[in-house]
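Just scan my protein:

. . .
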Amino acid sequence: MNYQDKKIAVFGASEDPSKYGYKILTELAANGLDVYGINPKGGHVKGHTFFPSLAEVPTSIDVAIMVVPPVALDGAVAQCVAAGVREIWFQPGARSERAYQAAQQAGIKAVNSCFMAENGFW
């Protein structure tokens, strides 16, 4: 699928270059994708300011990439349901059967796989 025309939220965006939340956000941005970082603590990296929650992003989001611990997934999925997100990717290490099922039950396409590898970014 082509994600060039999609608005993408990265839950777990990070200012730390060693973290996947940093690597995913910066790589997608470097490839020209419209990407928004979500981190309750805020922050920014390479011109991207992180939003504390999905509700604070000033545009609708099409795709969410989860790079948060499993304990944070229920809340993140609930934000996606409330915001009308159509697709969620649960990265390795950011998976929960309950969150996955909640996404599916809300009619969201839920994918347990690495967004970056599956879509040719890595």
